[in-house]
Amino acid sequence: MDDLLTEAEAARLWALAYNTHDPSVLAPILSRDVRVMSRWVVNDLVGRDRYLSYLRRKFQTFDESGLLVRVEVGWTPGDPPVEPGRPCALIEQNGLLLATVLFDVVGGRLSQVSIGPYPAPASCERSGEYPGLESDDGLVN
After folding, report:
1. What global pTM score does this model have?
2. Upper half-sphere CA count for residue 7 (Cβ side, 13 Å)
3. SS (H, E, C) the chain
4. Contact at 8 Å (CB) between 140 and 22?
5. So what's the pLDDT on residue 82?
6. Which of 80, 76, 69, 84 minimizes the C-alpha distance to 15?
7. Less crowded by CB within 10 Å, the N or C end of the chain?
8. Exposed/middle/buried for 34, CB within 10 Å: 0-12, 13-18, 19+?
9. What confidence score (pLDDT) does residue 61 get?
């Protein structure tokens, strides 16, 4: 692992993990004390091993429930609008955009994942890229 991890690459790998239900793709890029914050969860999740364990359980729940969860890479709106936005991931469940995911990279590792309704997923620039789903016409589960 080198120090060239970017927010855009972190977004792609995070989307790949979600779209393929394989948390192991994130293992090499996570910092030991990664912090995961969700607008819908009271307490932050802290620590690489805890996060990977959480993802294994979450993906198992997806598989068992039949929910169609897809993640697309995109960009937040710029501020001001003429400036480029930040790379992000957009979570879609059963065809509805639910959340925007932002990534902080420090020292070549993913140090923070922020999941929430802001910026609004519908306001983000969509790429049409769903890492890991290209060979399945965008469908998984």
Report:
1. 0.90
2. 15
3. CCCCCCHHHHHHHHHHHHHHCCHHHCHHHEEEEEEEEECCCCCCEECHHHHHHHHHHHHHHHHHHCCCEEEEEEECCCCCCCCCCCEEEEEEECCEEEEEEEEEEECCEEEEEEEECCCCHHHCEECCCCCCCHHHCCCCC
4. no
5. 75
6. 69
7. N
8. buried
9. 94
Q: Cβ distance 109 to 31 under 8 Å? A: yes
pLDDT value of position 136: 46
Q: What's the pLDDT score for residue 41? A: 86
Tokens representing 50 are 């805890």
